[in-house]
Design the sequence.
């Protein structure tokens, strides 16, 4: 189990903000869960005492150096750890330089990545034989195997130390995601950029041509993307319109578009299909009639006859054709008594005289 944002093992009573699984980490470790907790790093105390006599002999206590992790991720044969000091530590195989240590030797313990001087990282993402990180200068940095241009530095040369992935003019990266042979980055304006292998449309740029530098994803007009996810041969992203979008290989139905097979892939983002349908509305124990989808997010139904008084309303519905738990509205509808007019009694009056009749009104709503 891998913890992110926590400096100790979880205990009973802990509350986590979210839980996600990493396919790459699962492949590497058999089972990996990334738990995002709200842990914070205690500030280091100053030396105490902070002064002493010039002849020496003062006993000074200082905190032991320590680095605590804020995020971890696992690749196919290596692991990454982002420390609270903004540095990245790596361990495992380095056959393609994926540890970023300047060496291709196996490291069985976390070893500092040789980051450019003065640079601090804010996110790590481990891919297949390469690593991708987000820095505090708004650029991405990558190292390791560079076949298909997966490092995004404009070359196909492997690197055992970080190389900069230049953000397009005016763009500042805020999230990165590494996969097997392609990479994805999200800019602060909600635009996604991708690079690497593109044989199945994984880059989402409307082509199937690979590129070794960031290219813009052709996302739907007016939609800003967020929360990216990279898998073997496709990508997922959440839009600010509340929809999820997917692109790349859909052979196994992975795009959620409702189709699968050789023709189900897409080289531009397509919405993950979510179709809900109301199948019946019950008033008490009797279903309503003339159910109509108003195509505006509402349905209309004609209530069946029922004795006056409140009744429970239950909506039965399906999601993508699969029945879901009914939605119940306790006393959601009230039947009212039919309004009626009482028959006034007859009166006998002389010609030209005035007669007054009293009419009794009952029921709700009262007629006017």
Sequence:
């Amino acid at each position: 189990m891998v913890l992110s944002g926590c400096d100790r093992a979880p205990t009973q009573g802990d509350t986590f903000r979210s839980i996600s699984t990493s396919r790459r980490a699962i492949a590497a470790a058999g089972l990996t869960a990334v738990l995002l907790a709200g842990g914070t790093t205690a500030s280091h105390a100053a030396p105490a005492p902070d002064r002493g006599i010039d002849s020496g002999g003062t006993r000074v206590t200082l905190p032991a150096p320590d680095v605590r992790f804020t995020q971890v991720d696992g690749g196919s044969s290596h692991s990454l750890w982002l420390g609270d000091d903004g540095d990245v530590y790596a361990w495992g195989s380095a056959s393609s330089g994926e540890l970023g240590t300047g060496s291709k030797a196996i490291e069985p313990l976390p070893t500092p990545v040789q980051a450019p001087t003065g640079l601090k990282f804010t996110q790590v993402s481990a891919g297949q034989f390469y690593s991708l990180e987000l820095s505090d200068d708004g650029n991405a940095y990558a190292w390791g195997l560079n076949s298909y241009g997966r490092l995004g530095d404009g070359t196909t040369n492997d690197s055992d130390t970080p190389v900069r992935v230049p953000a397009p003019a005016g763009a500042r990266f805020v999230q990165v995601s590494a996969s097997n042979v392609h990479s994805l980055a999200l800019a602060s304006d909600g635009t996604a950029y991708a690079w690497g292998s593109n044989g199945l449309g994984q880059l989402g740029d409307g082509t199937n041509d690979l590129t070794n530098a960031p290219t813009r994803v052709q996302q739907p007009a007016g939609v800003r993307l967020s929360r990216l996810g990279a898998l073997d041969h496709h990508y997922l992203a959440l839009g600010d319109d509340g929809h999820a979008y997917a692109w790349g290989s859909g052979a196994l139905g992975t795009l959620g578009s409702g189709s699968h097979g050789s023709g189900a892939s897409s080289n531009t983002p397509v919405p993950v299909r979510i179709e809900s349908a109301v199948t019946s509305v019950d008033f008490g124990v009797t279903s309503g009639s003339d159910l109509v989808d108003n195509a505006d997010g509402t349905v209309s139904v004609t209530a069946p006859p029922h004795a006056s008084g409140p009744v429970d309303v239950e909506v039965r519905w399906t999601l993508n054709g699969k029945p879901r738990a009914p939605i119940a509205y306790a006393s959601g509808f009230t039947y009212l008594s039919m309004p009626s007019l009482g028959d006034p009694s007859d009166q006998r009056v002389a010609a030209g005289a005035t007669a007054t009749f009293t009419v009794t009104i009952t029921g709700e709503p009262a007629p006017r």
